[in-house]
Design a protein that fits this description.
Number of helices: 13
Number of domains: 2
Pfam families: FMN_red (PF03358), Transglut_core (PF01841)
Distance between the termini: 38 Å
CATH architecture of the largest domain: 3-Layer(aba) Sandwich
Number of strands: 15
Shape: elongated
InterPro entries: Flavoprotein-like_sf, FMN_Rdtase-like_dom, Papain-like_cys_pep_sf, Transglutaminase-like
Keywords: Flavoprotein, FMN
CATH superfamily of the largest domain: Flavodoxin domain
Protein name: NAD(P)H-dependent oxidoreductase
């Protein structure tokens, strides 16, 4: 696997460049890390040169296209990204080889959060696939630390080795998992509020499974089920569920999928067809999630919210859902969906109150799946 590393600083003693050199030294034989050294030679971006870009711009584009992923480390100047890295990205805006490229961002200065946030926003706008789990802030003890010092610090070595592992894992997963990692209208995982909450939930977590559990418990416990609490407004998009703190089961599943995807953890939607009362029709769809965990594969979780008689948990590989199928008329509908079913979207967008939704709950015959 090939990783192209870009430093947003031209200083010879740049701590960001030192971080990338340390990553290069830590890379196992299966990963080649190449530091691009020509950013200082790039002229200011000029759209008039798109049809005949200068040689160094062509070189940058060729190396980006050849790389399986990018790794960027860049400082903050006056609460903004450096001109060096912004100019490099400007030369890539119209380049098709950058679209969907997996990118991780390293922040070498914990206090420099403005540039880190702005850089991520730019990358998402450019249609990069941001690897959130590999995009970390390094707790470096000094702004003058060298790569030799970094390589002698067990905590830094562990963090940087973890970055490489997470980039490699994401690159391997992307072809099959791309639909379950993307942001969309209703699973809007790149909405700033979703990204911020996802990062908060992932902070300090040692592994993807721990992040997934935190996301699950947040949605299960902190987001109120609309009918349990009789709470308006009716929500459907993930960011709406997060902002208003409420949603029906399907809406809550949209939020959980978005939080997981924002942390580069593949997540999809699943459905059960349940009876509303006892063992007789009518039926309705109950929405839950499936998350891909490297140790277990696809694992179903149900964040609808616990209450007396309902006790969903995150305890892989054991599945503990809100509603086990015990009635022969009910069933788990097959498949893991990247997007919500149209009937679900219809119910959650056409009706104005939770009472109206309750009297028009979505349903679909199993034969339609």
């Amino acid at each position: 696997m090939k990783i192209l590393a870009l430093s947003g600083s031209l200083r010879a003693a740049s701590i960001n460049s030192a971080v990338l050199r340390a990553v290069k030294q830590l890379a196992p034989a299966s990963i080649e890390v190449r530091l691009f050294s020509g950013l200082g030679n790039l002229p200011l971006y000029n759209p008039d040169l798109e049809n005949a870009p200068p040689a160094v711009a062509r070189q940058l584009r060729n190396e980006v296209a050849a790389a399986d992923a990018l790794l960027i480390a860049s400082p903050e100047y006056a609460h903004g990204v450096t001109g060096t890295i912004k100019n490099a990205l400007d030369w890539l805006v119209a380049f098709e080889g950058f679209v969907d490229k997996p990118v991780a961002v390293l922040n070498a200065t914990p206090r420099a959060h403005h540039a880190d946030t702005a850089l991520r926003e730019t990358l998402v706008t450019m249609s990069a696939t941001l690897i959130e789990t590999a995009s970390i802030t390094l707790p470096l003890p000094s702004a003058n630390i060298s790569e030799t010092d970094m390589l002698a610090a067990p905590e830094i070595v562990s963090l940087l080795s973890g970055v490489l592992t997470k980039i490699q894992r994401t690159v391997k997963l992307l072809p099959d998992m791309k639909p379950f990692l993307g942001s969309s209208v209703y699973i809007d995982s790149q909405h700033p509020a979703i990204v911020a909450q996802a990062a908060k939930l992932a902070e300090g977590a040692a592994a993807e499974e721990e992040i997934a559990k935190r996301c699950f418990e947040f949605v299960r416990d902190e987001i109120k089920h609309s009918w349990d609490y009789r709470l308006n407004p009716v929500t459907c998009k993930a960011f709406e569920v997060l902002i208003h703190g409420t949603g029906y089961c399907c809406a809550k599943s949209h939020l959980l999928a978005a939080l997981l995807r924002a942390n580069a953890i593949p997540a999809g939607l699943c459905y059960q067809r349940l009876t509303l009362d006892g063992d007789q029709p009518p039926f309705c769809l109950h929405g839950l999630n499936a998350v891909y965990l490297p140790q277990h594969g696809w694992y179903r979780i149900d964040a609808r919210g616990n209450k007396p008689g309902v006790n969903a948990e995150f305890c892989p590989p054991l599945e503990k859902l809100a509603f086990p199928i015990v009635n022969p008329l009910e069933q788990d509908l097959p498949g893991i969906h990247a997007e919500p079913l149209p009937t679900v979207v219809k119910a959650l967008t056409e009706y104005q109150t939770v009472e109206q939704v309750y009297h028009n709950l979505p349903d679909v015959a199993a034969t339609e799946q």
